[in-house]
Amino acid sequence: MKSAIVVFPGSNREKDAEAALTEITGTPPVMVWHRDTELPKVDLVLVPGGFSYGDYLRCGAIAAHSPILREVKARADQGMAVLGICNGFQIITEAGLLPGVLQQNAGLKFVCRNVNLRVETSQSLFTSRYEKGQVLSIPVAHHEGNYYADEKTLDELESRDQVAFRYCAPDGSLDPSHNPNGSQRAIAGVFNRTKNVLGLMPHPENAIRELLGSTDGRGLFKAMAEALAA
Amino acid sequence: MSAVAAKITPNTIAEHGLTSEEYDLILEIMGREPSMTELGIFSVMWSEHCSYKSSRVHLKKLPTKAPWVIQGPGENAGVIDIGDGQAAIFKMESHNHPSFIEPYQGAATGVGGIMRDVFTMGARPIANLNALRFGAPDDPKTKHLVSGVVAGIGGYGNCMGVPTVGGEVNFHPSYNGNILVNAMTVGLADTDKIFYSAAAGLGNPVIYVGAKTGRDGIHGATMASAEFNEDSEEKRPTVQVGDPFTEKLLLEACLELMATDAIVAIQDMGAAGLTSSSVEMSSKGGLGLELDLDKVPVRETGMTAYEIMLSESQERMLMVLKPQAMAQARAIFEKWELDFAEIGVLTDTGHLVLKKNGKVEADMPVAPLVDKAPVYQRPWVPTPPQPVITANQVPAPQDLMAVLKQLVAAPDLASKRWVWEQYDHLVMGHTVQRPGGDAAVVLIPAGKGGAVGKKALAMSSDCTPRYCQADPKTGGAQAVAESWRNLTAVGARPLAVTDNMNFGNPQRPEIMGQFALAIEGMAEACIALDYPVVSGNVSLYNETNGKGILPTPTIGGVGVIADVTKSPKVAFKSAGDSIYLIGETAGWLGCSVFLREIHGREEGAPPPVDLAAERRNGDFVRNLIERGLITACHDVSDGGTLVALAEMAMASGIGADLLARPKESPDHAFWFGEDQARYVLTVRQADVAVLELQAKEIGIAFRYLGKTGGTDLTLAGAGAISVSELKSAHEAFFPKLMGASK
């Protein structure tokens, strides 16, 4: 699998993502600067976490209008896989690749901790290595991760199997006390309709080593590498 | 304030924080009356903050050398060799006064400033820590200050993408009017790629990069050198405003430029901004420097030379570049969309010459400005000794477990989760020990350009101000010893420290006595433990309306771990492990948390520090860790042995069955005494014999305490308490104080 990571001024988890892709897929990603107008020939584009453009105006809003994002969007429309993590989720949502918006956390504070994530579907190139209903331990680190969409959109997401992950209790049950940011229906990650685009707030790239607390993120990278193997 | 028309009066001199004797010295150096800009420059360079005029004679007593020290105090940060061609570069610095006046921006710019100090030297920051001390929890300002400071630290560090991995948070009424915000950054560099600030090369260009200069923070350094009173709130305009996004760009641009060989010298603009950076560079290089202030990027119109030189706008750097590398350097800064301006040139005059609108605004000799800065031998008196408090002078508690529950819920011992969950402690993907352990542990590559493997850095921040208040010398030694012990408890070899000396008004002999004696104690401990001081910061005048803070010499320690897979955590690892207490227990209750929280008594002499025992016990524990024998380890400090055990249980959810205390030692003294040089650790049943044999062979005091297991902490003869009940009490304090829902 060939991959690229888009780097914006203010991105700060691009190296974490680079390390995870390199280690798990065996091929280092190409780092693409935000002012570039062309993407290399790749199977996956990862939009990393951070504070692109300082989160000025609104998280992800400026990055969504950068030259490279137009290219990412065009290629995604042709079926290329796109993974947006944290700020990357905010960016691709702002760019219209995914429905909904990420609002400020309900607790009004930045939150960094491991959360329990319930896998909602294994029917995707990102989640095929997980079982539906499996509970993962993966960290979040954000101030604006409160997923919001109107009821109709949420119903559509559910009926089309577009919800990838939900925040849950350790036993997999949904419980508001285990929702770190107040997201609607505890949604932590969503796909586009064709499921070649995934956006999620938690950081699977920070859950790839036992020494660092969890290896539950590895499955996501492995699944992509398998599905997108040349 | 105009540089042209203003006339210097005794009032102007006083407003600049200068004494009439200091002004006479200025007249002597200049040979004439200074211009207002020149007076401003003298004022900030000779402020306590920049000149260390009260502390210098004492700081000299600290050991600063070791074979692994590459750069000691005097540069932007200290540098130590950590093997494999790698260096750790680190420093701690206070931002106390600004954080009290404007907590969010004060704390944020403190974090920004210390990170700049570290990346100026060529290191990528890999970890931040911070030591915070607030007033009493029920003081009306405390909640607002905690909320703002924590958000500010998170706001800046999170955006920079540098994990905030550890620190301390304490409360005491002495900080009601003067909180402490001490920020520490640790960076990683190659030993052959370290950058210094000494200017060199006559005719070389002087370059300004980063953010534009505004009118914020003018005279911040002078403010930090005076006491507070009721009017302190009016000083808000002297607090700087931070922009972490710009600093993130500045970090990446500087590191990109540092990978080339374009840079001759580099210095960040911190306290006293363009003034101190230009004076530092030229004085260290023995060269003159001429600046055209019209070329300084400014964000406001009509700024005078005085304002440009004294502004403390953030996210700025001054560099001397090789002329042939200018185009390459400019391209890098343009890529990162940062200002890049050639504002001056190095000269052979030995003078700092400032021009604005074609007019010379300042022309002053640099050497005397630095070398003749006043140094004071302030009079000091020793702190009167406090009586030793014996166990029979303190009533024994009826219910040990109820006392334990009360202690783990007390503000200083309660869980700080509410704080550190607001910090991104995981970014960069190398955090092994998250906040809440004895020391933070962060993976580093195994050598230059190597992959991340088993090598790690350990870091901690420590001070027990109540000990320093009762006996500054013992307290100073204890702060160093505890730092060394915390690093040892995670299996690290402690290498060096940075110190952040927070004290009251040095013009009061009793305060100066605290300072002088704390340094003496620190020096003794640093020498005994081979743990030199490589950088630091002094913050004096931490008082409001004449009342000083507890003396607080915060110690930031750094050590290296060769094989992080053997590094134990505080949490009990599994049921059935044997628990040992390492070190002598006399049952010292003076100055203890137990005495303060349970009996409301803040009194007595602090526990003595036996540096030989500290070293012996620590080396013993580290050796066992390196051999892979230790399954969990925790240093014994605030609250004593039973609190340490409770912390190990709460971190894991695993309980313990504990034997009764020895007959000769009363319960409260044995379980809550704060004797030093002690560790609680666990080993597998199979390794018990090895531990005991080894301890006996080298004469280490140890005591078998019991076994891990179950979900209760059970103490023979004293009953039991469930770990979950302890944990609820432990987690309750911060959310309740801050009014959070969870």
UniProtKB/TrEMBL annotation, chain A:
- The Enzyme Commission number assigned here is 6.3.5.3, 3.5.1.2
The family database entries (SMART domains) matched by this protein are listed as: GATase_5
Q: Which domain of life is it from?
A: Bacteria
Swiss-Prot/TrEMBL keywords: ATP-binding, Cytoplasm, Glutamine amidotransferase, Hydrolase, Ligase, Nucleotide-binding, Purine biosynthesis
Cell location: Cytoplasm
**UniProt-listed PROSITE patterns:** GATASE_TYPE_1 (PS51273)
Cited function: Part of the phosphoribosylformylglycinamidine synthase complex involved in the purines biosynthetic pathway. Catalyzes the ATP-dependent conversion of formylglycinamide ribonucleotide (FGAR) and glutamine to yield formylglycinamidine ribonucleotide (FGAM) and glutamate. The FGAM synthase complex is composed of three subunits. PurQ produces an ammonia molecule by converting glutamine to glutamate. PurL transfers the ammonia molecule to FGAR to form FGAM in an ATP-dependent manner.
Its recorded name reads Phosphoribosylformylglycinamidine synthase subunit PurQ
What organism, scientifically named, is this protein from?
Dongia sedimenti
Q: Gene encoding this chain?
A: purQ
From TrEMBL, chain B:
Question: What is the gene name?
Answer: purL
Recorded protein name is Phosphoribosylformylglycinamidine synthase subunit PurL
Top EC class of this enzyme: ligase
Q: In which pathway does it act?
A: Purine metabolism; IMP biosynthesis via de novo pathway; 5-amino-1-(5-phospho-D-ribosyl)imidazole from N(2)-formyl-N(1)-(5-phospho-D-ribosyl)glycinamide: step 1/2
Name the residues annotated as catalytic in the UniProt entry. H49, H95
Q: Which residues bind Mg(2+) 1?
A: E93, N537
Q: Which residues form the Phosphoribosylformylglycinamidine synthase linker domain?
A: 14-53
Catalytic activity, per the record?
N(2)-formyl-N(1)-(5-phospho-beta-D-ribosyl)glycinamide + L-glutamine + ATP + H2O = 2-formamido-N(1)-(5-O-phospho-beta-D-ribosyl)acetamidine + L-glutamate + ADP + phosphate + H(+)
Entry's localization field:
Cytoplasm
Please give the family membership noted in the entry.
Belongs to the FGAMS family.
HAMAP family registered for this protein in UniProt? PurL_2 (MF_00420)
